[in-house]
Amino acid sequence: MKKTLLRSLCASLLLSATSFTAIAQDYPNRTITMIMPYAPGGPGDTITRLFAGAMQKNIGQQIIVDNPAGASGSIGTAKVARSNPDGYTLLMTHISHATNPMMIKNLSYSPVKDFEPVGLATVGPMVVVARKDFPPANTKEFVEYVKKNQDKISMGNAGVGSASHMCSLMFMEALGVKLNNIPYKGTAPAMNDLMGGQIDILCDQTTSTVGHIKGNRIKAYAIAGTNRIDSLPDLPAISEAGVKGFDLSIWFGIYAPKGTPKPVIDKLSASLAKAVQDPDVKARLATMGTSPVSPDLAVPAKLAEHLQKEINTLGPLLKKAGVEAN
Predict the structure, then answer these.
(1) pLDDT in the model for residue 196
(2) Which partner for 222 in 100, 138, 238, 253 could form a disulfide, CB atoms 3.0-4.6 Å apart?
């Protein structure tokens, strides 16, 4: 009896492995949809379309982009979680994948349990900027000025739970200050008020700030992290001013629904690894003030590791700030 069961199990495993191999060999044989769960026209949409175009060149099928936006990206993300795990519906998302469980009550999916990571696409640090006439002359003076004048300084963000909001919370935590933290409905209105002098400082991604910095419409003070970046080589990392614990990046990664066969994930990851090395991708991202990851990060394990690190870091920040899911 035991031998019969064992033979049956072995046969089942062999059949499963054979089926997975067949799926991988046949995949893809039709159009793939990549979900970007935010509205068209923003940096995330641009990045998604850029990678979809680069990946379809080497994977052999068209990749179209769909934007079922709303509810901080959770509508589109839930759509992917409910999709067939066959590799034909993918998700490109960012930091909201880590923060939505803490921001949205009764979220219909788990970022960790309901998805298969494919790999990271881009990782770029945030930038701390200020209105054009903000007094400090350099990064060190900026840090000292904020500490001495915290009760007089306003810091905008792109909305509660956004990367910009996380950046403002981490900034205040690292400097040991409490600023007047003002949420906006997106980066654009926050940036408009910064340029108009209605708020003092803002922390946001390079895709939203570099153009205004180079256009001399706002003042840049520091990279949120430990390294300078190619798009702003003369701008110091805030660690150079002695600030520790302020290291936040905006990242984009690709996921498939849970249960997608590993050979399909491997094929997608290999396609992504080629896309991050594509000269056209690098050139287009450079104009946005960011860059693709190295090929060794465009793999499932690195994306899974990065997501868990973000959850572990950002959850306590939100809790300490008194932010509750709604």
Answers:
(1) 97
(2) 238
